[in-house]
Amino acid sequence: MKRLIAAFVAVLALSGLAACGSDTTPTTAGSSDNAVPHRIVSMSPTATEMLYAIGAGSQVVAVDSNSNFPADVPKTDLSAFEPNAEAIANYKPDLVVISNDVKNLRDELGALGIPVLLQPAASTLDDTYTQITELGDRTGHRPEADRLVGSMKQQIADLTKDLDRSGPQPTYFYELDNTLYTVTSKTFIGQVFSLAGLTNIADPADANGQSGGYPQLSPEFLVQADPDFVFLADTKCCAQDAATFAARPGFGGLKAVREGHVVPLDDDVASRWGPRVVDLLRQIVQATRGVPVG
Amino acid sequence: MSTVLPPPVASAAEPDTHAAPRAPVVRAARLRPAWLITGVASVLVAGVAGLVVGPAHLAPVDVVRDLAGLHTGLGPQQVAIIEQIRLPRVVLGLLVGGTLSLCGASYQGVFRNPLADPYLLGAAAGAGLGVTVVIVGAADGAATPAAAPIAAFAGALGAVALAYGLGRASGGRTSTASLILAGVAVASFLTAVQTYVQQRNQDTIRQVYTWILGRLSTAGWHDVLVLLPYAVVTWIVLLAHRRVLDVLAVGDDEASTLGVHARRTRLVVIVAASLGTAAAVSVSGLIAFVGIIVPHTVRLLAGRSHRVVLPLSLLFGGAFLCVADLLARTLSSPAEIPIGVVTAFFGAPFFILVLRSSRRLGVTS
Fold first, then answer.
1. Which of A152, A202, B154, B335 has its CA 20 to 30 A from that of A38?
2. How close A14 gets to chain B, by Cα (Å)?
3. Do B335 and A217 lie within an 8 Å CB cutoff?
4. Which residues of B fall within a CB distance of 8 Å from A254?
5. If you average pLDDT over every residue of chain A, what do you get?
6. Could you read off the pLDDT of A33-79 as tens digits, one per residue?
7. Does the beta-carbon distance from A221 to B55 stay under 8 Å?
């Protein structure tokens, strides 16, 4: 038994060491810390958008199968969900950007001497700015990154500055798929809606955060809450639109349906935390501005 | 009607010279009116509870008055909640739960296997594959999500047909064991394909998962109307076989001496039960455990004859799923819990309890 515990402790210690080791970017022969990567593989659609937005697109040699913006990205069939270190290494990258350390991908690539940058899903807009800046630093495009962040902040300030916050806020329901999975205000996307001065009807459904901000709503609760606006982030995944939404049982009489306030969104834009979050905010503000609440 | 068949347990009788009746043998072969009334009452109670309780807090008296067509002070939204969301959901729960339980009881009878459930011959795996392909295709613009129930139905029936064909081809004419093994093989194979397709398309994994865990609220009355004709046909065919299944329980050879064509009977029951299962699965997803725990509970409490088990499984299965759905939409209101989680969470411990009790009572299957 004692030996077993000792072995267990040893394994723990080793894995702890390994985790520490992977935090520092392995430097490989032939590339120094100052070298600017010119063979970047992006395994994150958001990182792809950021890289192109800061002018590092020409340094990107491959992107994962879900990266589809901008249109001319070097799309491959590399899967970010089921990644294979060997398949990634085939592109001889000198930097791999990932948003999710699936199956110890970071360590595997590290063992091959490939530097990895982990940029997980942002939980706030500040995370987005930090990631853009970080990408700017790593790719030699810091000035462009700073300009992008500045421009995003300015646009968001412009979009939200003359919102009337005096009266009651309009309410909204945000649909992730056609089984009423939704988000609360605690999520990244929920915060964007809060910026636009909207109140989320789903907040009570995950008040204690047990669903991680992504509860599945009861249809009768949605009908009773009767939100002023409905935003559909399932136009691509589930082929939903205002008509299919209105056709669901009990939804035909919803205020948002009657008044034409069911707003289709682009699933991709709505699920990423890159530069296009400004476009999303603009769409929300334009759809809701000047609509009387009540 | 006049031929009182021996209950299945009696068939296991070792040459017993003493005439002392053992406990299982005295269990009723005929459905007692008291049990029938209890079953109907449970359906009514579960149905009413499902109608008056929900995340939208409506006064029960208003719900009842609205459904009775009387004047209420409810607004159009609240009427929509009662008539377009709750009522079809309750009816769907009764239909799906009753059908799955009845099909499970029939599978257990026809295979003489206590662990048989409606998904035994690969219906769930086939339906899962069909739905996964449609959901993935919908995300690529190659299919419409509305095709999912059809894909589930076709997948379920296709899998059972495949298993039956393979089992028959390899097992000769009387072996139910080879049929079960063929079902296991087909289910494993189709699940492997389904998992592969699902993992290759992780952007749609939540939708696939939602479907697999089961849900009673999708298309309201449309689902009810889709399911109803299949359910009714299944019920009629299976209930009509309740006596024959008792005969089959004594073994194929013995059954044939009693004038029952075992293979043909088995085929008819399997086809009917698979049809009902496929239709239920196509509108509700893969709801676990209903088809196992309800029939076994009925056997334990009311008797082992199929004349008791089949009708009572239909009634109690409907009531059980109706209550499970009530829990699914109220336990963490206004969020929902997948109903498959509720049935398995309460079903698994309950199943253990049934097994323990049945051993103590000497009611082995």
1. A152
2. 31
3. yes
4. 77
5. 87
6. 558 999 999 999 999 999 999 999 999 999 999 999 999 999 999 98
7. yes
Question: Minimal Cα–Cα distance from B56 to chain A, Å?
Answer: 5
Give the confidence band of A250 by pLDDT, cuts at 50, 70, 90.
very high
At residue A292, the pLDDT reads: 64
Assembly ipTM: 0.80
* DSSP character string of chain A: -HHHHHHHHHHHHHHHHHHHHHHSPPP-TT--TTPPPSSEEE--HHHHHHHHHTT-GGGEEEE-TT---STTS-B-S--SSS--HHHHHTT--SEEEESS-GGGHHHHHHHTT--EEE-PPPSSHHHHHHHHHHHHHHHT-HHHHHHHHHHHHHHHHHHHHT---SSPPPEEEEESSTT-B---TTSHHHHHHHHTT-EETTGGGGTT-TTTT-PBBPHHHHHHH--SEEEES-TTTS---HHHHHTSTTTTT-HHHHTT-EEE--HHHHH--STTHHHHHHHHHHHHTTPPP-
CA-nearest residue to B56 within chain A is A221
pLDDT of res. B201: 82
Task: Work out the burial of residue A142: count CB atoms within 10 Å of its CB; fewer than 13 is exposed, 13-18 middle, 19 or more buried.
Answer: middle
Q: Chain A contact for B206, CB < 8 A? A: yes
Contact A66 B88 (CB under 8 A): no
CATH code of A23-158, in short, is 3.40.50.1980
A2-11, A254-263, B52-61, B130-139: least confident range: A2-11
A252 at interface of B, judged by CB pairs closer than 8 A: yes
**Per-residue pLDDT at A15:** 44
CA nearest neighbour of B191 among B227, B230, B163, B223: B163
Q: What is the pLDDT of residues B51-75, one digit of tens each?
A: 999 998 889 999 999 988 888 888 8
Share of chain B above pLDDT 90, in %: 48
Return residue ranges of chain A for CATH 3.40.50.1980: 23-158, 171-288
Locate the chain B residue with the closest alpha carbon to A79.
B200
pLDDT band at B362 (very low <50, low <70, confident <90, very high): low
CATH topology for A171-288 is Rossmann fold (3.40.50)
Q: What is the mean pLDDT of residues A161-168?
A: 78
**pTM confidence score:** 0.83
Which of A224, A235, A258, A266 to probe the B interface (max B CBs under 10 A)? A224
